[in-house]
Design brief:
Layout lengths: L29 E3 L4 E4 L6 E7 L5 E8 L9 E4 L2 E4 L4 E8 L9 E13 L8 E4 L3 E8 L13 E6 L2 E6 L5 E3 L2 E5 L3 E4 L4 E2 L3 E6 L9 E4 L1 E2 L9 E4 L2
Parallel strand pairs: 2-10
Antiparallel strand pairs: 1-3, 3-7, 4-6, 4-8, 5-7, 8-9, 8-10, 11-12, 12-17, 13-16, 13-19, 14-15, 14-18, 18-20
Length: about 240
């Protein structure tokens, strides 16, 4: 089954920033307890995550792991993948790291929670189902022994080479941020191709030919939970 990605546009407004095609947790159906799953490698028994069936009737909860285009390694399994959840009840989902080597850096995946509702039989007596609001959340795999970092965006470095802007994340942390960048002086707006930079990843984008001498870049960082912090300005090196 293929899942379409929502287009998320970054913003420099001081509002909540829902990144990388996350859906609202205020919707009916299967509602996750948090906006992100953080899997600690040190927790060998797995990371528990709660999902609540807010519908007035029982539904099936289906859970899918989705890899990013930039990281296709299969590092996670979940239990259960499909289960019945009664109306108003919580269901615990366990996430397990199944990589063959210890994590050296944070990794980013997606998890999809989907409610499947049984409906009254059709005119021919066949069973019918409907699907609730799909919840698509990030999963951050955190290596054993790696210190927590509340402001990983401070580790990004920015460079201009000709008509290319390059952001380098030479750290072991995933950085979440709004896609909109403002180059100063001049308040020139450019957009990142996505709202995250993976650990030890470099991302480049093409600039307008008449960029001039930009000295800094202003962007909207986000916490690990996807909420906007104060805008941050970094020097272009």
């Amino acid at each position: 089954m293929k899942y379409l990605r929502d287009c998320i546009t970054g913003s420099l407004l001081p509002a909540a920033l829902l990144l990388a095609h996350a859906t609202s947790t205020l919707a009916d159906g299967m509602v996750p307890k948090s906006s992100v799953v953080i899997l600690e490698e040190a927790n060998t028994s797995g990371t528990a995550f709660l999902v609540t069936n807010t519908d007035p009737h029982a539904s099936l909860l289906a859970v899918f792991i989705e890899n990013l285009p930039e990281d296709q390694d299969n590092l996670l399994v979940v239990q259960p993948t499909v289960t019945r959840v009664e109306a108003g009840h919580e269901q615990q989902v366990l996430f397990h790291y199944v990589g063959t080597e210890p994590l050296k850096e944070q990794r980013l995946k997606r998890v999809i929670f989907e409610g499947i509702r049984e409906q009254a039989p059709g005119a021919n007596g066949s069973m019918r189902v409907s699907f609730g609001v799909r919840q698509n959340l990030p999963v951050i795999l955190h290596p054993k022994g790696l210190a927590k970092n509340r402001s990983p965006w401070e580790g990004l470095t920015w460079h201009v080479d000709g008509n290319q802007l390059r952001v380098e994340n030479n750290t072991p942390y995933v950085v979440r941020l709004g896609r909109e960048l403002l180059l100063n002086p001049g308040q020139l707006r450019v957009d990142l191709p996505r709202s995250y930079v993976l650990a030890n990843e470099h991302v480049s984008l093409e600039l307008p030919t008449a960029i001039g001498a930009a000295s800094s870049v202003r962007f909207q960082p986000a916490t690990v939970y996807g909420y906007a912090t104060d805008p941050y300005e970094a020097a272009i090196q």
